[in-house]
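INTERNAL AUDIT FORM
Audit reference: QA-55
Scope: verify that the stored structure record matches its stored sequence.
Auditor: D.O.
Record contents follow.
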Amino acid sequence: MKKYKIGYTQGVFDMFHIGHLNLLKQAKAECEYLIVGVNSDQLVQNYKHKQTVVKEEDRAEIVRSIIYVDQCEIVNSLDKVQQWKQFQFEAIFIGDDWRGDSRWNQTQIDLKKYNAEVVYLTYTKGISSTFLKDKEKDAVREVNDDEIE
């Protein structure tokens, strides 16, 4: 029997990679039903001041297709209490690279009022969407005939 009935995690999931998959796999191992919030394009623009490479509908469809995900929703807020009110989860999962962060410390305090826990999962080192975006600049790409001399 799994520790939690309903679990939740949230992220951008841009340029889906093995770190994303590892997070979802670990989260699902802890709960019977996993809900994943995919940050909307507008939300990412508002707090990261960046545009996503992959649009929100496509990112959500990719996440929905992962076997560990039971439900996927596009979300417009980083407020985890708001997410709890919508999804009624018992645990929210986040990478352990966020352990000790003041925002997540406050989230632990806020969610405790609702009997929900923050669970830190092993972060996959050496991979991130930002890393992939930087690496993509040097990647092999398809060229048009008019680019070949």
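Auditor finding: record pair retrieved intact. Residues 4-139 form a domain with the Rossmann fold fold (CATH 3.40.50.620).
Action required: none
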